[in-house]
Design brief:
The complex is a heterodimer. Chain A is mostly helical. Chain A has 21 helices and two strands. A two-stranded antiparallel ribbon of chain A has the order 1-2. Chain B has two domains: 54 residues; 66 residues, no CATH class. Helix content of chain B is 72%, strand content 0%. Chain B has five helices and no strands. Classes of the chains: A mainly alpha, B mainly alpha.
Chain lengths: 508, 143
């Protein structure tokens, strides 16, 4: 019953005029970011963090705004998947498989409505799951000391990308690079300048927000310059949807697939290093296995859109569980959300639940509320977003650039940070060309200081004995999971990646 | 530049990183680990993964044509100039010009791009400064 009381307190935090407005704005922007191919939840959240910080919003309000964007993007991604066969963001890839065939059959409206319901269902399941599971995980996390935390951070990096990453060398490189960025500046423990090249600007270290916005937003502009001619050739058809309310029979038929998709997605989301893309992938393949009796999948089966949509929304919620309760993010977007909390001087983890229950429960309450807003935005008002899809990126990208500049300048007012942001934009572009994942870099920059602090605290306790890191039972378990999570993809990764590639190829 | 070349450059930078980290002066306050160990560990993994990439390249990057590359450089220069211009000329004028050039380079017709520049600059100024009260760059003209 404790949970219910907390939730009621949460609703009193969430239901202020300001927070309701922020949730509304967040849901709207999130759906837009999700629907526009090229911009996803991570970019959207990245651009908005500096802004919400400069606006002086408190932690609960910023969290409400940004997670509304996050949830919204999960809803929005399906719109372009279904209508123009281009996934609006990565998790929405699986939705194209049956979504676009439905559009070709003239059932676009129906597909949008069904996926809207599926998204809603998935998110609600995940939010309830978050509410129940996170406090339990916090109880376990209270047993963690610095050694366990250090192991946990290593685990987060080792399992990053989940089963779908088979090039471990590149993930390690990216993680080391990101962590190396965090070591620049005055050493927090002893107060000596480190790796700062005598430059005063580097004494404070590199603000991870600069890295995030540079890599996630500015690099997108360079990618666009490169591909603009290709994009211009693809003519966008006029999209006509007649919103059709699906027959009650269809909803009943697809309901079990939503339930299965939500549960699978939620658990995929909690797993370290998984995230929403894996959630929708598992949900789709599982659904296909058990429901594809008449070989209707891939040809516009309704269950082929509801399962992955429920899956990716549930996974998005599930990914919040480890981020909030342990302070260890498993995906790019949750890493960025973590960065936001850290900018506000709040460290997620068990202490967050103890010291700032208003943030946690206000957030959970706001998520319930946001889901209802999103349901309304995404079913009766979905036409509004299909028009936004027609906005050409050549107009969109300059806006993204300017808002990035406004945000970063708003924080520090220094041109130096802007130059760094441009540098990280170019650098992110280079890494993307080389197929090196950006998420570990970002996570490294965000988590580096915490990771180092925990390592050094642990070794201070043990007076320099490194074996201390492997002494307690809890840390041994974490190290074992780390090893399994690292090795398993090397065995199974190839198969899953090739299957995902197969789906991607089918599309192009 | 192939993967192998990148691996070599990355290895060199990793060595440089470890070297610079080793130059960190120790202070009188100290803990058993000190400020150098963590960078050393990172440098080890950084170098190791670079070596793996050098010996096992598996991906051929596709680089843009020379012309595209030039465009990327032009846009970068515009952004850098914008970063320097902001505190001098102020938000409205520099954003107007930067948006105009960006949009134009991204394929909007020149005249439309100019109007677009006006629209973006004034909308952001109005929305973020006048309504939300965010501090934007103030140049010599005060806006």
């Amino acid at each position: 019953m404790e949970t219910i009381n907390f939730l009621f307190d949460g609703f009193s935090v969430a239901f202020t005029v300001q927070n309701i407005t922020l949730a509304l704005i967040g849901c709207f922007l999130g759906t837009v970011f999700g629907a526009l191919p090229g911009l996803g939840p991570a970019n959207g959240v990245a651009i908005l963090i500096p802004i919400s910080f400069s606006l002086g919003l408190d932690a609960a309000s910023s969290m409400i705004l940004l997670t509304s964007v996050y949830y919204g993007a999960m809803y929005g991604g399906r719109i372009s998947s279904i209508l123009i066969n281009i996934p609006g963001d990565e998790p929405a890839l699986m939705t194209t498989l049956d979504g676009y065939p439905m559009t070709l059959k003239g059932r676009a409206g129906e597909a949008l409505t069904l996926t809207g319901i599926a998204s809603f269902f998935g998110s609600i399941v995940a939010t309830i799951g978050l509410m129940i599971l996170a406090p339990q995980l916090v109880k376990i996390a209270l047993l963690f000391g610095p050694a366990e935390y250090f192991a946990l951070f290593v685990m987060a990096f080792a399992t990053l990308g989940g089963v779908s990453s088979n090039n471990k060398a590149k993930t390690i490189l990216a993680s080391a690079l990101g962590l190396a960025i965090s070591t620049i500046g005055i050493d927090g423990q002893t107060g000596v300048p480190r790796l700062s090249f005598g430059n005063v600007h580097f004494y404070d270290g590199i603000d991870f927000l600069v890295v995030i916005v540079g890599m996630f937003a500015v690099s997108e502009i360079f990618i666009f310059i490169e591909n603009k001619d290709v994009d211009a050739k693809k003519k966008k058809k006029n999209i006509i949807i007649t919103t059709i309310i699906p027959k009650f029979k269809v909803i009943v038929k697809t309901f079990p697939s939503m339930v299965r998709g939500s549960l699978l997605g939620f658990f995929a989301g909690i797993l370290p290093g998984a995230g929403a893309s894996l959630g929708s992938f598992i949900a789709y393949t599982f659904e296909k296995k058990i429901s594809n009796k008449d070989d209707t999948f891939g040809k516009g089966d309704e269950r082929g859109v509801t399962a992955p949509e429920a899956g990716n929304n549930a996974a998005a919620g599930g990914a919040l569980v480890p981020m909030l309760s342990l302070g260890v993010p498993g995906s790019g977007t949750t890493a960025v959300l973590l960065a936001m909390l850290m900018t506000m001087n709040i460290t997620p983890g068990p202490l967050l639940f103890k010291n700032n229950p208003d943030v946690v429960w206000g957030l959970i309450a706001a998520l319930f509320f946001a889901n209802f807003i999103l349901l309304i935005l995404n079913i009766p008002m979905v036409r509004m977003f299909t028009r936004i899809l027609l906005l050409p990126p050549k107009y969109l990208m300059p806006i993204v650039a300017m808002i990035s500049f406004v945000g970063i300048y708003g924080i520090s007012g220094s041109s130096f940070d802007l130059l760094l942001m441009i540098f990280f934009g170019l650098f992110g572009w280079l890494l993307r060309k080389l197929n090196i994942p950006l998420v570990p870099v970002i996570m490294g920059a965000i988590l580096g200081n915490l990771m180092e602090t925990n390592l050094r605290r642990a070794l201070t306790i043990s007076d320099g004995n490194w074996m201390y890191l492997f002494e307690s039972k809890v840390s041994i378990i974490i190290w074992l999971i780390t090893i399994i999570g690292f090795v398993l993809p090397l065995i199974f990764g190839k198969k899953i990646t090739s299957e995902i590639e197969k789906f991607k190829k089918k599309k192009s | 530049m192939g993967e192998r070349a990148f691996g070599i450059i990355s290895l060199i930078i990793a060595c440089g990183y470890v070297y610079v980290a080793s130059l960190t002066e120790l202070s009188f306050i100290s803990d058993p680990v000190g400020p150098k160990q963590f960078p050393y560990i990172l440098g080890f993994f950084w170098g190791l993964s670079s070596l793996l990439i050098i010996f096992q390249p598996e991906f051929k990057p596709k680089w843009p044509s020379f012309y595209k590359f030039l465009e990327i450089i032009i846009v970068t220069i515009v952004l850098i100039a914008y970063a320097y211009a902001l505190p001098v000329v102020g938000f409205v004028i520099s954003t107007l010009i930067a948006t105009f050039i960006l949009a134009w380079r991204l394929g909007v017709e020149m005249f439309k791009a100019l109007i677009f520049g006006f629209a973006v600059s004034f909308t952001i100024y109005f929305l973020f400064h006048s309504i939300l009260g965010l501090s934007l760059a103030r140049g010599v003209f005060g806006f």
